[in-house]
Amino acid sequence: MIEILLAIIIVCIICLIHPSGLTQFVYFVIIRIHRSKWRHNFIKRLLKGKPHLTTKGFCTVQEEIDLIDNVDKTLTDRISFCGFHEDGTMITFSQVKVANVKKNRVTFRNSSKEIFVWEDDVIEQKTVNKVFTGKMNLTVLEPMRKWRIIFQGFLKSVSGGEKSVYANISVLWQCSSDPYECAQNNTLWSFAKFSAERLIDYNQLKKMITGQTFRFDQWGELCGTLDIDQSGENFFRFTSPRSRSFSKLSERDGNTRTIHYIKLKDKCWMLMLMKDYLCDFKILSGYIAYPNGEIWPLTLKDGASDSTVNKPFMEETAFTQDGECKVLKILIQIDEKVFADETFKRYHVNDEAAFGCQLTEETKHVVFKMNLETSAIHKYAYDEEVSNIPLVISMKDSLCKRPDLVGGKGASLSKLLDMEDDLGVIIPIGFCVTTKAYIEHIRENKELSCSIESIHYCIRNKQIEQLLKCCENATQCMARTRMSDVTQAILMDQLHTHFGSGYENECLAVRSSAVGEDGLESSSAGQMETILNVKGYDSIIQAILKCWASSLSFNIVEYRRQYGQRLTEPMAVVVQKMIKSEVSGVLFTADPLTNKGSTIVINAFPGLGEVVVSGKSNIDTIFITRTLDQHLDIRKRVSAENKHDGDKCTYEQDICLQDEMALKICQVAILIEVQFGGHVDIEWAVAKRCVYILQARPIISVAGETDEDLMHEFDTPVTDSKECLTTGNIGEMLPDIATPLTIDLFGRAVDLATKIMHGCSRALRYSTYASMLVRTFYYRMFISLSVICSMSISSLVSDKSKVEMFIMGETLPENSVQNLISFRGRKPSRFSRLIRLLKARFETRRAEKILRSYEIILQDTRIIHHSTDLNDLMEEIESNHEHYFKLWTAAMYQNAESAIGSAILMSVLCGKLNKITPDVSADLASLLSNCKNVYSADVPTMLADLAKIIDESNQKDYFLHLSAEESHAFLISSDIFGEKYRLFLERHGHRCVREADFLELSWAMDPKKLIQSLKALISHGIFNIRTEPQTTKEIVENLRSPLTSFQKFLFRSFLVSVARKGVAKREWGKSLAIKMGDVLKQAYWKLADLMVQESRLPEQDLLFFLTHREIKTLIETRSPELVRKSRKRRNISQSLLLYSFKKVNYGAPIPLPMDVERSGSPTFEGQGMPVSRGIVTGRACVIKDISEVGQIHKGDILICMFTDVGWTPYFPLLSGLVTEIGGLLSHGAVVAREFGLPCVVCMSNATKLFKTGDIVKLNATEGSLCKIERKLKISK
C-alpha cells in the first residue's frame, strides 16, 4: 500500500514539474511490462525452458554453456568477432548457425587495404571437447571470457583479379568488458522519452519491442599469429568486440540493425553505435566503454537519413556522465564494402580520428548452400544406447560407424564405404570384430584378467620399471588363450558372407582398430598390429588374437599412459580383403611439417603400404601445391635415393608413383577432406590402375596451437596503450613465471578481491568477467598501476605518488593524473570520497573479523579430507575455492588499511611541499620499524631459537651430517627439539619461496630447504639476530624531515602505532591467505597423485599446467589433447624463464634483451629506494635463484631480484640487502626493519650490474650501492 502511495506521489510531482512527464511515465510503464514479458519468453525458448540466471549483463557463464549446446534449433544464432588496428589492418570471423549447419566467414584486410575473404557452409561434427566446422574452428575455452579461433585455408581477394592466398590464423579472443545488451541495458526512461516525444501508438510500440533481435556485445582483444602464404608467423593484438544475436527463423521480412564498433586513436575508450530500423523509425543508441569496465549508455535519438549511407554522413548523439551531458558528433565514411552486412569504415568522433567497422543484421532467413533437412544424414548419433551389441559386424552396417564398438579405424572405413561411389575408388570389403568380443574374451580368461590387472597395479604403485615385464606377460598370455566357440561360429558365418565358401584361399588383411585410435584428438597409427596375407581359418583366429595382444604391448600401454588414456582400452579388429598393391603409401592433405594446407604431401613405396606407415624403409615423396579452386600442380619430387639432397631434381621416371595417379589420389583426398571436415591423412594403394583407400583419419597436429599461441595463451587484454603495468609487489610472491593453475586461482582470487573491495566502496566500477588488477603476459603476472592509482583518485588520504612509492619505490610522472581520469572516465567529488572512506573503514573491520574466524578454522589440518575418489576430491577442492577467494579479499582489506596508515605518515612527512624526497622515504622506514607481531619476521627468530638449542646439545655434529630427509625425521621424533620444530611447522609450515604458486611445495610438504637454512644458522653460530630497538620517541626526534611540535606529538601518541599495527595486520592476513592456499595446494597434489594412479596423467606436475576447468574436463573425458597441451606448456615455461621485463610497462609488456651491459669501470654505483637505514661495507653475493643460497657467506650483502618469506631464514647471515623490485611495505623491507638490516629496494638491474665477490658499500640511508676496490677479509 505504501509503495502505491509513493508511486502516485512521484507521478503527481512529475506532472507538476514537467506536464509532458505524465505521458512519458505512461510510456515507461507500457515499455517496462512488454519488454520484461518479451525478454522472459524469448530467453525461456532460447534455453529450452531453463530458468534465466541473469545477474548482470546478458547472461552468466552457465547460460553461455547452455547456449552453445542447447540453443533452440528454430532460431538463427549469429556470432562475430571483429578485430581492428589503427594501421588499418582488420580481421573478422563470423558464424551463422541454424540447427547443425553453419555459415562461416573470414574477412581479412591488410595495411595496404587489400581485402581477402573466405565463406563456406559446413556441418558440425561433435566430439567431446570441440565443434569442428571445416576450415574455421571456434572453441569456447571459458564461457563469457575466452574463445579460441583457428582458420586454415585459402582467402580470395575481392579487390579485383583472381588472387588468392593461403592463411594460417590462430587467435585467442579474451574479454575486456562485461556483455552489454542494448535492448535491456539502455535506460527504459530514455526509450520512454523517445516514444513520448513522437507519440508512438500502442500497436506500433508493441511491435518495436517484440520485433527486436535479441543480441549482446562484449569488448575484448584478439591476439595470435597470422601467416599469409608462408610469409612467417606474425603476432598481432587487435581491439575486438564480440557480438552474439538470436532471431526467429520464421521471420522472413524482419527488422534491420546497423552496428558501428569504433575505437579512438588518442582515447582509451571504445564506442558502440547502433541504429535500429524499427517500423518507421531509425533509433540511434549505443554506449561508451572505458578500459576499467565502466559502460555509459548513449541517449536514444533519431538516426541520420538513409540517403547518405554511401557518402560521408554525420550521426550526433550524447551520453550523461555524473550529471553532465556530453555530446558526440560522429563522422562516418565508407572505406571498403565487402558484403552487404560487413563494411570497413573510417570515423571521426568530435574531430578526433578513429577506426573500426560496421555490421548489419537482419532478422530473416539465412540462405545456405545445402539443404538443412538432408544435412542430418552426415550426423552420427554416437550417444544412442544399443541394447544388443553384436560380436562381429559388417562394415556396411550403420552400427559400424560407432568408434566405441569398432574402434577408430573400423568406423572410418565404414564412413568411407558410404562415400565409395562418390569418391570413385574402391574400399576393400570386410567386417569388424567388435569391442564386445574383446571384453568378453578377457572376462572368460581369468589368467589373462590377472595379467592385465598387474599392468594397472604397476601404474597405481608407480612401479614403472616393472611395466615392461607385465606387458610382455600380458601379450604372451593373450596369445595362448582360445577364442570362444560362440565368437568363432559368428566369425565363420561372416567369412562365408563376405568372401564366399572359398575364403580359406582368400588373402586377407587383419588390422587392429582400438577405441580412441585415429580420432580427432589422438592417433596411435602404426603402433598396433596389422597382419597381411592371412590365409586359412586358423591363421585368421591367430591373427585376431595377435591384434588383441598388441593392445597390451609396452609401446601402446606407455603411449596411452603418456596421454592420460585408459591403459587397456577395448580393441576391435578389422578383417578385409587383401589388396596386392603395386604401389602404396600415405597422403597428407596438409604438410605435416609446416601444417600448411596449400601443400599436399604423398609418401609412396612399391608394394605394401604397411612399410610406409611403420617407417621401416625409405620412401619416395611428392609435394603438390593446390590453389583456392583446387587446381593441383606437382611442385617437387624426392626419391628414396636422394631424399637427403633436397635441391637435386627428381624426374617422374625416378618415382614409383606416376604423376597422373598421384593427382588422382589427391583429388580423392580432397573429397574425403570435405566430408571429414578438416585436413586428413589417408592410406592408399594402387593395383591395376585402380585406387584403393585403406584408411582415413584427421591430422590432429594441424588444428593445434603453435608454440607462439601457447606462449601468449594467458595474456590479458590491454585496451589502453597508456595503461601502466608493473611486476612490483606481486613480483615478491611470483618473481618469474606462474603455472596456469596459479594464474587461474591465485590471479583470479587477487583480482576478485580488488573488485569486491572497490565495488563495495564504489571507488571504481569493474567488469565481472574481465581482469581488473592482475594482468598476465608470457605466463608472468603484472598488476595494473593504472587501476590502483585510479582508485587513489577516490581516496582522501592517499594520492597517486604515495601509491607508486609504496608499490614501486619511486614516482612515475608518465602515469599522469589526466591519464588516470581518462582511464576511469571521471573524478569523484570530495563528498563521495569521504563516504567511500567511511564505508571502506567499515568493510576493513568486517574483514578483520573474517580473518580471525578463519584463523581458528585453519588450525584444523583436515579441512579437505583427501578422498581417494577423484570426483569426491574435486568437489571438496571446489567447495574450498570460496574460502580461498574470501580470505584473499579479507587480506586485501588489511593491505589497504596498512597502506592508508603509512600514507598518513608520509603526508605529514612531506609537509606543504607534498614532495617525496629520499629523506621522507628514510624517515618513513624508520617510523615503520619495530612493528610487533609481524608474522614473517617471526620465521628467523623461531629458527634461530631452534638452532641455538641444537648447537648447545651434544647431538649438533650428528645432526649436521644427516641428509635432509633424515634430519626432518630426527627433529620430528626428538624429545628435545621436536616440540619447537613441530611448533614452527604448525605456525609457518605453509610458507616457502614463491609461496603463491601451487606447484611450489611448502616447507611442511618438503622441508629440505628449511633444513638447509637451519643447518646454515648452526654452522655460522648465529642465534641472536635482533638488534636493540629504538623507542618511538627516539625515532621521532631523529627524523630528518622538518616537523612541528604538534606533528611530533601526533606521531608519538597514535599515528605511528596505528601504522605499525597496519603493517602487522597486513602480514597476518597474507599469511592466512597463503595458509588456505597451502590447504588447496596439498589437495591438488593429492589429486595429481590419484590421476597418475588412474593413468589420467603421466606425471604429477603436469596437473599444475592446466587450469581448474581443464582439470575437471580431463577427469570427465580423459582428453589426450589436454595432456598434450599441459606438456607443451611445461616445456614452453622453461624457455620463458629466460625472459625479463621492465619494472614499469605502458601497454602490453615486451621482453627485454637478454643481456645488460656491465660497467667496465673498477667503481660504479646503483641507486634505489632506502627502506631500512644503515651503512655497511661487505662482499656482494648475487643470487638469481633460491637454489643458489648455499653461496651466501656470513656478513654478505645479498643482491637479488626480490625476497619473500622463503628467503627469511637466511636474513641472519646478512649484513645488508638489495632487491630489484619492492617498496616501503614489501616483504624484504618489513623484515629488514625488524632486524635492523640495512636495505635498499627498487634498484634496477642490480643482479646484472654487480656480481658475486664484488666489494660493495651499501648506503641504505641515501639509497645507493657502490662497488669499491678495497679488499675485505671474508668469513667463510
TrEMBL record:
Residue spans crossing the bilayer: 6-30
Molecular function per GO: ATP binding; kinase activity
Keyword Membrane: yes
InterPro entries recorded: ATP_grasp_subdomain_1, PEP-util_enz_mobile_dom, PEP_Utilizing_Enz, Phosphohistidine_dom_sf, PPDK_AMP/ATP-bd
Superkingdom field: Eukaryota
Keyword Transmembrane helix: yes
Keyword terms: Membrane, Transmembrane, Transmembrane helix
Domain PEP-utilising enzyme mobile: 1193-1263
Pfam families: PEP-utilizers, PPDK_N
Similarity comment: Belongs to the PEP-utilizing enzyme family.
Record's protein name: Phosphoenolpyruvate synthase
Highest classification ranks of the organism: Eukaryota, Metazoa, Spiralia, Lophotrochozoa, Mollusca
